[in-house]
Fold:
Amino acid sequence: MTKKSIQLITISVLITFVVVSLGFISYIKYLDGKENKLSKVPQNRIQINNKQDSLLLKEQGMVDFNANENKAIVLIEHYQKDKLKEKKELLSVSAESGTREKLSGRIQWGMFNKEGFENNLMVAIESNEGIQTSTEYMMKSKTSGGTSIGFNPDGYEIDKKRKYALGVWGFGEEAITSSPDIETGELDIEAMASNDDSFILYVMFK
Structure:
């Protein structure tokens, strides 16, 4: 393969990623406009929203939250077997200074529904004040994709000392995922120790 061919392929991949990313952001804005306002959630709870239906994403999920705290942080952890290899903050949103002490909003995530981007995770967060931000994360593993689970349908009472698993992905020949504890939202990492790689998407509140 010539240098020019490699450059053309790289440019094509980048253009595809930009188009898909812009499409995802546009969908978030469309969904917000269509529903006019964020779903009502009981005070200090986070719960699943089943209204997402994006053709751009697969293995997608969406939650609404109404927290006593004024900041939501979305982060991801990457484990190889049971060893933590990476912990990264993906994005966050806060109540505007001087206007609110509490924060409500929405988080949406999903894998790109596009050949060549199957392991690209897109995450977006929106506050009740209209602040929107999104990012992407590449799940890198030497083995093919395995299993995944989403957010607990019962939702949780928010505790700022805890982090809540939004999605879990396992890679390996016989990959397994650990379901979050119904009461706490926490995971048993040791249960996924047989995986080559495990990725856990969390949210926490401060």
In short: Residues 148 and 183 are 20 Å apart (CA to CA). Confidence is low (pLDDT under 50) at residues 5-36. The radius of gyration is 18 Å. The chain is about 15% helix and 40% strand.
